[in-house]
């Protein structure tokens, strides 16, 4: 019997998230067997489907090079807990502008796309359809669907959406920032992290006592151990005004001794801490990390020998 893996994603078919899902599938990120797609209306719904057992994994956008972190995804990862990141990839983002057959740009009165996409095509809109009213959609493909159904006149979406919904493409490769990229991740139930590769990322989210110097002291735990922090961002806890979750991306894997020691020290300082996973990050140079790991293992052997009277 063929095993089937269900993956939730921001739908309908034709979104960039679906494109990322297909690429993850080609890379074997979901394991062997067939993959069944479960389109939903938001990243939060995708993660909730994993928590509820309706999906084995979720594919969600987590960051883009134009607007930074996708805060709705980060909030959803932490607020209900129980999930973890296992893989990531990046996709270059450029949009096609699409209309119903038989219409022209001069006919456009309403323009639909996802709010994040809207920020990435504002210049093109100002130059070509400046009077069109923006209609936010739950996804780019949902915007294309709205055009097909007559609820909007034009949409910005991936090329595939035009094919799926029978629309005409009037402009391709539209992006105010050339080379813009979005990072997508595979999220599953909490479990053993993806094996260490030497080119990994670890992400944790923590809160600290609301006292002077606590953030500096917490971050010092990383710098003292030579752990590189590639990103830090704060988000309100939504519980007490003036309290924050700190989201930190670290270069390395939880199996790396310095990083593990830093997380242990952070646990002692934090009010609460959530581990979101360690996973491979394509394109990162891991030679220095491998060398440091080998040196630390020799240091550990030396300490063990000293304890045993062999040093």
UniProtKB/TrEMBL annotation:
A Gene Ontology biological process in which this protein takes part is: L-phenylalanine biosynthetic process
Which pathway or pathways does this protein act in?
A: Amino-acid biosynthesis; L-phenylalanine biosynthesis; phenylpyruvate from prephenate: step 1/1
**Which transformation does this protein catalyse, written as a reaction?**
prephenate + H(+) = 3-phenylpyruvate + CO2 + H2O
Domain of life from the UniProt record: Bacteria
GO MF: prephenate dehydratase activity
Enumerate the spans annotated as Prephenate dehydratase domain. Answer: 6-189
User: Which of UniProt's keywords are assigned here?
Assistant: Amino-acid biosynthesis, Aromatic amino acid biosynthesis, Lyase, Phenylalanine biosynthesis
This enzyme's EC code(s) = 4.2.1.51
Name the InterPro entries on file: ACT-like_dom_sf, ACT_dom, Chor_mutase/pphenate_deHydtase, Preph_deHydtase, Preph_deHydtase_CS
ACT domain: from which residue to which, for each copy? 203-280
Q: Name one GO cellular component term.
A: cytoplasm
Q: Where is this site: Essential for prephenate dehydratase activity?
A: 182
Name-wise, this protein is Prephenate dehydratase
Organism this protein belongs to? Corynebacterium pollutisoli
């Amino acid at each position: 019997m063929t095993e089937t893996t269900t993956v939730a994603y921001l739908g309908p078919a034709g979104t960039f998230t679906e494109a990322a899902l297909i690429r993850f599938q080609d890379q074997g990120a979901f394991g062997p067997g067939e993959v069944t797609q479960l389109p939903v209306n938001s990243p939060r719904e995708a993660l909730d489907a994993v928590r509820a057992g309706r999906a084995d994994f979720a594919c969600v956008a987590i960051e883009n090079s134009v607007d930074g972190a996708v805060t709705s995804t980060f909030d959803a990862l932490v607020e209900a807990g129980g999930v973890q990141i296992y893989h990531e990839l990046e996709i270059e983002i450029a949009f096609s502008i699409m209309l119903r057959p038989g219409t022209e740009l001069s006919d456009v009165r309403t323009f639909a796309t996802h709010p994040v996409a809207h920020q990435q095509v504002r210049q093109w809109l100002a130059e070509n359809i400046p009077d069109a009213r923006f209609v936010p959609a739950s996804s780019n493909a949902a915007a294309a669907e709205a055009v097909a159904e007559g609820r909007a006149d034009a949409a910005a979406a991936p090329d595939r959406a035009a094919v799926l919904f029978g629309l005409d493409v009037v402009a391709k490769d539209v992006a105010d920032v050339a080379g813009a990229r979005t990072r997508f991740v595979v999220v599953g139930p909490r479990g053993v992290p993806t094996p260490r590769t030497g080119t990994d990322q670890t992400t944790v989210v923590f809160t600290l006592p609301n006292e002077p110097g606590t953030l500096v002291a917490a971050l010092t735990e990383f710098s003292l151990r030579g752990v590189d922090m590639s990103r830090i961002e704060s988000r309100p806890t939504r519980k007490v005004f003036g309290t924050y979750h700190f989201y930190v991306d670290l270069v390395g894997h939880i199996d790396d001794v310095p990083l593990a020691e830093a997380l242990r020290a952070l646990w002692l300082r934090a009010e609460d801490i959530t581990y979101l996973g360690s996973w491979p990050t394509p394109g990162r140079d891991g030679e220095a990390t491998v060398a440091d790991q080998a040196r630390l293992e020799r240091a550990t052997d030396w300490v063990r020998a000293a304890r045993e009277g062999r040093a």
